[in-house]
Amino acid sequence: MSDPKDDLYAAPLDGEWEKSSFSNGSGDACVQIMPIAGGVAFGDSKRRDLDGALRFTNREMLAHILAVKAGQYDHLIPDGTEL
């Protein structure tokens, strides 16, 4: 039986990368997300060689978004951090 994540990592990165509207204007500090079959892939504008290295199922992404919206990770941002 194969791991369901195997399909995510086999999915081609043939869509368009989406970057946060909160990223800086120079484009060199962007976390990017691309919808793929069964989930999403993450990329980093500073490490294009690693594009898609992290991939999450739709359920995993939903759990993460809900946690971020609830402020679960706010403690990880040092005081004074600005965009």
Summarize this structure as a short list of keywords or feature phrases.
83 residues; alpha+beta; globular
* Major sheet strand order: 1-2-3-4
Structural Rg: 14 Å
What's the total helix number?
2
Characterize the overall form.
globular
Short description:
The chain is an alpha+beta fold and 83 residues long. The protein is built from two helices and four strands; from the N terminus they run H-E-E-E-E-H.
Helix-strand layout with pairing:
Elements: H1 4-10, E1 18-19, E2 31-36, E3 39-44, E4 54-57, H2 58-69
Antiparallel strand pairs: 1-2, 2-3, 3-4
Q: Would you kindly provide a written description of the structure presented here, covering whatever features stand out?
A:
- A hairpin with a 2-residue loop joins β2 (31-36) and β3.
- The chain contains two helices and four strands, in the order αββββα.
- With 83 residues, the chain is an alpha+beta fold.
- A four-stranded antiparallel β-sheet has the order 1-2-3-4.
- It has helices at residues 4-10, 58-69; strands at 18-19, 31-36, 39-44, 54-57.
- It is 23% helix and 22% strand.
- The termini are far apart.
